Each structure stands twice: as structure tokens, then as C-alpha cells.
Amino acid sequence: MMNDEATWSTADYGGQTAAPRRIPLDRDEALRLLGTVSLGRLVFTHQALPAVRAVSHLMDGGNLIVQLHDGAALASIVAPTSATGVVVAYEADAIDPVTRLGWSVVVTGYAHQVTDEVELARYAAVLRPWADHHAPDAALRIRPDLITGSHLSV
Residue 20 in contact with residue 13, Cβ under 8 Å? Predict the structure, then answer.
């Protein structure tokens, strides 16, 4: 257990002498970086409590497409097609565990279930499940309304 007076060494930062600096990312760069990875974490409300699931994603235009597998837990995300959508957050990153350098992006926006069969087939062909799952239950389209991100640099 660490105490309040924890001593950090350069080994804690992969040999660096200081913790990485956080440099804010603009919207375009944050979305570009999201397109360079295929896994992230979807944050949503399930039975009135926060829930997080690891999922596969891709960028399609300016929208984030998320593949869903856990139908029971993720059913709370799916809003009626006439609704504005359900507010969710999505986080993805690429951070080196030794140097702690890289980037992290969080997108918050409204999620809608993808219902078009042609789109679903296209997304299913491109998105690879992050774990051994059966065929995807559904896909969500998240319109990024609020985007925050940081580049972690020396």
C-alpha cells in the first residue's frame, strides 16, 4: 500500500525524469486518433447505474460505430428510432505502459441503433470482435457532441 508521501523514481516513468505532460487535442486530431485504434470502452447506464464494456469500433465519416455483443446489458442503450438517442461516453487510448506516453480520447454523444441491414452487414464485415463472441447483436452510431482528448508527452 502506498502512503501519501510516496516516492517516485524515474523507473515509474520508463526512465524519464518527470511525469508526462498533458497536451489537449483538438476535435479533428482526437477523431483522427480514434480511427487509428479499433478497441475502446463504452460507458452507459444500466439499471440506473454506470456500466462499462470493452467493444470494437470504427469511424464512419464523423460518427463512431460501436459493435454490440452483450444484448442483455446493452439493451438499455438502444433508444426507440424516433427518440433523440441515449447519451453515452466512449473512451479509447494508446498509452505505453512503461513510458506512459501516448494519447487518450473521450467522446460523449447520442447513440442510435443502426437499423439499416446494408450498413449492419458492412460494419459486421469490417469490425472484428475484441473477444470470442457470437455474431454481433447490434451496432450503435454515436454522434460525437463533446470530444476531449490529451496527448501525453515528455
Answer: yes
Neighbour tally for 99: CB within 10 Å: 14
In CATH, what number is assigned to the domain containing residue 136?
Answer: 2.30.110.10
Total domain count for the chain?
A: 1
pLDDT tens-digit map of 100-131? 999 999 999 999 888 899 998 899 888 877 66
Range of the structural domain that residue 70 is part of:
25-149
- With beta carbons less than 8 A apart as the criterion, state whether 56 and 71 touch: no
Helices (H), 78-142: 117-126
Question: Which H helix or E strand runs over 34?
Answer: helix 27-34
- pTM (two decimals): 0.81
